[in-house]
Write a structure and sequence with these properties.
It is built from 9 helices and 11 strands. It is an alpha/beta fold.
Length: 238
Amino acid sequence: MSVITIAPTDRVFVLTGAGISAESGLPTFRASDGLWAGHRVEEVCTPEALRRDPWMVWDFYSKRRADNASAKPNPAHIALAELEQRIGDRFFLCTQNVDDLHERAGSVRLIHMHGELNKAHCERDCGRPPVEDRSIYASLSEVGHCPCGGRLRPHIVFFGEIPYEMDRIQEEIGKATLMLVVGTSGSVYPAASFVHWARQNGARTVYIGPEPPLNAHAFTSVVEGNAGEALPGLFQVQ
C-alpha cells in the first residue's frame, strides 16, 4: 500500500463515519436487517418519535451512552489525532459519529455534524446552547429541563433535521487540498456530497474503508482495508 504524501502547503479535511467507530465495537448506524440496535429509525431518531414517545428515545440514547463509555479509541482514531498534531491548523476533522472517540484519541480541531451523544439541548429549540449530559437515565422523570421549562432532548440530529455547522464545513472543504473519507458508505446526504465539493475545488480525494463506497467514482484513490490497519503509517508528512 502506497503512502499518502502531505506537502507543507496541503490542507487536510477528514470525514469519518460509522465504520471507524465499528472497529471500536460500536454498532453501525444501519444493520443489514434495517434495524438500529433493535429499533427502526423512525422509533428513535425522528422529531415525531420524540413527541410520540420521549422515553423510548431517551432510553435508546442512554443505552448508547453506556456503550460509548465502555468503548475505546482504536488505531485509526489515534492515527488521525497524530496527523493533526503534526500539521496543526492545516487539519480539520468532520465526523458523522456522535461518540467521543476522536476526542479521547486526542483530536481537537473537529466538529460533530450529527450531534454529540454526551450532550443535550432544549426540545423547544429556545436558542440556549447544548449542555454536557452523560447521564444514563432509568426513567423519563430523571431527564432535566431547560431554564425555559422545556425538557432536554439528546443533542442528536434527527432525520429531517439540518446537520450542524454546514457553513463551517463548506468553508473548510473550500480550503482543502486533500480530503480523506474514512469508514462511511457514501449513502447519507449531505455528507456523501462532500467529496464532490472537494473535487470541484481541485482537491485530491482518498477513501479508506473495507469496501468501496457507493460514491467510489468520485475519489482519486480508494484504499481498501479496515481503518485501524490502513491509517497507521499511511501518511508521509513533508
